[in-house]
Write a structure and sequence with these properties.
208 residues, alpha/beta, Rossmann fold, seven-stranded mixed beta sheet, disordered N terminus
């Protein structure tokens, strides 16, 4: 199976934005080279590529989109199919779970956060990046949806139209998400970006 034309255009546009504006995301977290890492929601493999380029060799990707996993396979990455609400990994399997922009695709925040907690080793780190409600995001969304726009924001608009229900749900329920996050994890570092939360956290292993 092949990715759709929309998928391909999106990833090309995202690569353009990523390389220019978001290229330091992994560096935020000071991950050790010998850590066993799960790239949760690995997509087409942008972060898997970056981990490899930076000398990380013990990394596995996980995603629910089989088309994108096939692209990762073609690139030689170790990936598995999996839903973050029901991860097919043993407890205490990973030193690091890395997550970029995937929690706003689900409503069952608690289930997914518990699963991340479960598969992390005690003393491991959840390295989390995702959208947050902010004035800057409202401005960006206004520009995207209300003004005449060109590539790559046009691609962003098309993608958000496909996931708008979940996108809006996450932003409206962000406080609830953070309550559940704090129940499962202890934040050790939090960078509050203009439109994104960037968090490094330890699992609270007493959570049931």
């Amino acid at each position: 199976m092949q990715t759709t034309a929309l998928d391909e255009n999106w990833w090309k546009s995202w690569n353009f934005i990523y390389r220019r504006f978001l290229s330091k995301d992994i560096e935020y977290f000071d991950i050790r080279k010998d850590d066993k890492i799960l790239d949760l929601g690995c997509g087409i493999g942008f972060h898997l590529t970056k981990f490899k380029q930076q000398g990380y060799s013990n990394v596995i990707g996980c995603d629910v989109n089989k088309n994108l996993l096939e692209e990762c396979h073609k690139k030689g990455f170790k990936v598995v199919y999996g839903d973050m609400r029901r991860l097919n990994f043993k407890s205490n399997s990973f030193d690091v779970v890395f997550s970029y922009g995937i929690f706003h695709h689900i409503k069952e925040f608690g289930l997914a956060l518990k699963e991340v907690n479960r598969v992390l080793k005690a003393g491991g780190y959840f390295c989390f990046i995702d959208i947050k409600p902010s004035v800057h995001r409202r401005i960006l969304d206004f520009i995207t949806f209300k003004l005449p726009i060109s590539h790559p924001l046009k691609v962003r608009k098309n993608m958000l139209l496909e996931e708008k229900e979940m996108y809006d749900y996450f932003l409206m329920n962000h406080n609830r998400f953070m309550e559940l996050f704090m129940k499962n994890f202890k934040i050790v570092w939090h960078k509050k970006g203009l439109c994104m939360d960037i968090i490094k956290a330890l699992p609270q292993k007493s959570v049931r």
